[in-house]
Amino acid sequence: MLKLVEKLTDLNARFMLGLSIICLLLAMVLVSADAISRKFGYALPGGVPITELFVAGLVFGGIVYAQANGVHLHVGILDGVLPRRGIVLTDYFGLLVGFVAIGIITWYGFAQAFDSWLSHEASDDKIKVPFWPSRFVLALGSLLLCLQFVLDATRLYLTGKMHRSLGNVDSAT
Asked: Which intervals hold domain Tripartite ATP-independent periplasmic transporters DctQ component (predicted)?
């Protein structure tokens, strides 16, 4: 079971890292091209809304990757005073709070993406860039973050550790 959790975590992290890298590169190219074209008095049509799509992928890809590798938010202030069992319980509590909060974002993100798609909501630019792709990326990224919370809770149950060992990142240290 642990091997399956690790494989799914790796797959989730690699997919979102790849998405994040692609979005970063595309956003850099688009922003650079827009900045250069503005020097010559011409703005790229649709540059800003398309960049927003890439930023959504960049942010959620990075968050999922960080959570999968144990370098996302962890406050260890109680780790020195709580017994091992208390640390595990606070880890479970943190995963539950994260899952609920991001689950709400996921639910509303998919609802907004669907509404945006049905209403053909688009930017007011020369090129009508639809808003639903960036909303869908937000919803998909938050869904994969929820999946990562479930994988982390399963790993915590199976090993007693929050994350795979990456230096001193473990919550057990």
From this structure: 28-156
For every residue of 47-71, DSSP letters joined together read HHHHHHHHHHHHHHHHHHHHHHTT-
Q: Would you kindly state where each structural domain of the chain is located, as residue ranges?
A: 2-159
pLDDT tens sequence across 143-162 = 999 999 999 999 999 888 76
Angle at Cα 148 formed by Cα 99 and Cα 139, nearest 5°?
Answer: 65
133: how many CB neighbours lie within 10 A of its CB? 18
Res. 84 pLDDT band, cuts 50 70 90: confident
Q: What is the pLDDT of residues 108-140, one digit of tens each?
A: 999 999 999 999 998 887 788 888 988 999 999
Q: Compute the distance between CA of residue 48 and CA of residue 27 in angstroms, rounded to an integer.
A: 10
Map tokens 């406050």 to a residue. 75
